[in-house]
Amino acid sequence: MSPLPLWFWPLSSLIWTVVLIILRSKAEIEKIRNSCAIVAEILDRLVEHIKPGVTTGELDAISEEMAVKKGAKPAFKGYHGFPFSLCASVNEEVVHGMPSSHRRLKAGDIISLDFGVVVGGYFGDAALTVPVGEISEVAVKLCTVTEECLYEGISKAVSGNRLSDISHAIQDYVEKRGYSVVKEFVGHGIGQHLHESPQVPNYGPPGKGVRLKPGMVLAIEPMINVGEAEIDILEDRWTAVTRDRKLSAHFEHTIAVSENGPLILTGRKNRFTKLYG
After folding, report:
1. pLDDT 10s digits, 12-65
2. Suppose 124 and one of 19, 39, 74, 92 were both cysteines; which one would form an S-S bond, judging by CB atoms 3.0 to 4.6 Å apart?
3. 26: helix, strand or coil
4. Overall CATH class of domain 6-275
5. DSSP-H helix ranges across 93-224
6. For the chain, what are the domain ranges?
7. Per-residue CA distances from 266 to 34, 43, 117, 270, 275 (Å)
């Protein structure tokens, strides 16, 4: 789940200013990894339920039931009043889609599933976009580029790099392929709170912001549009949609910076290229 839209924050060089970044111990990272493993397992299970006719409300119920069975608490439910455990964003919905018993998936849809849990005081968070049956070539290319740019960003999460090296890698990869980056929502630090410093934009010049150090734990989550970057917020005050109502995709991993490179803590069985390669 992405933090509040950036229009609540100064849109200037201050985006790279942080108040406090906590460096996690190896023991703490293992606790975060445990939460992340539950998130990954639940997202993999949700993928198995994606088919025409399923409602987003059913997916929300499955995610919450699985989390509770594993001794975890859904991280999103109740967060700033969000009433569900799962964010389920369909087609032109960018992020924070509200599950509903009335929203049935149709063949050709794409759905972004964003889910998090907290276990023993430590959070995990991840997202992926999933095809519903056969989807268009436009949708396939969008999802492929969005997933690939996530890994481009992760590859820059190396000790000694700057925070914006992650951001620039994502934006550069996306825009060279003709897609646009949503700028209002960003990635974030994560640990004993769902959203911690630093914010991790999916755009910006390289070489800015804090130097990355072992022990930093980040949720990197590009949201990429087929058309223009601009978004609107619906009347529910949560669901973000593309202003031009063209497709959007969303992928996210929680990662830790280590002495030996980035560690993906929310590794899943399902990558988009495996689901629709």
Report:
1. 444 545 558 999 999 999 999 999 999 999 999 999 999 999 999 999 999 999
2. 39
3. helix
4. alpha beta
5. 137-155, 163-175
6. 6-275
7. 9, 10, 12, 11, 17
